[in-house]
Write a structure and sequence with these properties.
The structure is a single chain. The chain is 0% helix and 58% strand. It has a single domain, classed as Macroglobulin (MG2) domain (Immunoglobulin-like, Sandwich), CATH 2.60.40. The protein is built from no helices and 8 strands. By secondary structure, the chain is mainly beta.
Length: 84
C-alpha cells in the first residue's frame, strides 16, 4: 500500500498520505458511482511520506465515489463517501 486516504468520508477535499519513494509520479482518478471521471490528479513526489490535500471537490454531489491511485506499475482502488 503506497498511499492512505484519511478519512474515507470527505466533504471538499481528500487528505492523502503517500508512503512511496520520492522522485516518482503519483496519479489519481476520482470516479462517481456510474464510473464517470469526476477529477484527476498528477503529482511529483518530492519526499518520502509526503502528505497533501486533493482539493477542488466541493462542487461534486453527495454520494459514493471510487478513487484509483497509481504510482508506476502499482495501483490501488479505494471506496469513498462524500457527505455534508
Amino acid at each position: 500500500m503506497f498511499a492512505k486516504v484519511k478519512p474515507s468520508i470527505f466533504i471538499d477535499a481528500l487528505q492523502l498520505e503517500l508512503s512511496s519513494l520520492r522522485g516518482s509520479l503519483f496519479r489519481g482518478v476520482l470516479r462517481d458511482d456510474n464510473g464517470s471521471i469526476c477529477s484527476t490528479l498528477e503529482k511529483d513526489i518530492l519526499k518520502d511520506n509526503e502528505q497533501f490535500s486533493w482539493t477542488g471537490l466541493n462542487d461534486l454531489p453527495y454520494g459514493r465515489y471510487t478513487v484509483e491511485l497509481f504510482q508506476g506499475e502499482d495501483e490501488m482502488t479505494i471506496s469513498l463517501v462524500k457527505r455534508i
